[in-house]
Write the structure tokens for this entry.
Amino acid sequence: MLREYRRLKEERDELSKLINIQRNITSMMMEHNDIGELFQEMMKTLKEAFDIRNWIVFLKDNETDEFFVLCSSLKRKQIKELRLSPGEGIVGWVSEKQRPLIVEDIKGDVRARAEGVVHKVMKTRSALVFPVTGKGGTTAVVELINKRRGTFDKEDLLLLSKISEHISMAVEKMMLQLKLEELVITDDLTKLFNLRYLNRTLDIELERANRYHTHVSLIFMDVDHFKDVNDTYGHLVGSKLLTEIAQLLLSRLRSVDIVARYGGDEFVIVLPQTSSKYAAMIAERLRKAVEETVFLRKEGYNIRVTASFGVACYPDTAKSKEELLNLADEAMYKVKYKNRNGVYVII
């Protein structure tokens, strides 16, 4: 009788534990709109549930199919820089097989060598590794590292099987939400930010400039004789040209700078904490980069174009968002009407 009571109590405790985990994951889905934050919170729950010392989450880069470190229990630069090619390491194996794996001895598993830096820093002895899957395959791979007491076993796999679907659903929902948000704020063609995001950004940056008594500069850019490109090569080539120009601009600017497609062949660049003097230097650098680049070389077109740039600055020359946009636009058209391929600064 006592034995039966203990068994029933253990089952009740296990069920209660499972319900709490599932409830926590569901709650996190509602509270977070960032994939990194979601995983950070979920891993707190999993760390307690599986009684582990460390963990690491690898997220799939959909453009390269590589896995990069999204977050981990230990914040180390060498861990953060790790990237794994498709099929590489334990992560690659679990991703391809789409099933969990207990690695009882990391040092004796050849697949772990590709992740050597992680296991060296985390002093990994054993790990429970599982995929987070969605409709498109594996989205992420999670490694639970070193149990505090004992080793990973069938009971851990059983618990994982009961919660893995909840984890995958939470992550898939988050990824879908992020994709939808990205579509709302980005231009379909160039993948740059669109007008909606530009307006939102300007509101934020002007407010910050007022608070900290700094500048915000704006550059309007228009591709010279773009109609000739469309007329000569067709609109499809013209669209590809705009995409390459967008990538060129991004490669020559700071991570804090915002590049948006304003419409047609016009681009707008927001330069936070930048005076008109330095904005003019940046515009000139971009002008030269456009002029010196041979576009669509891989496609065999070898197209050369130039561009006209207009610069305005808040609060030096403009006192509002609307005035900043109008002045930069006017400055750009002064170049267009004069001789093109130049920079005009409103001072």
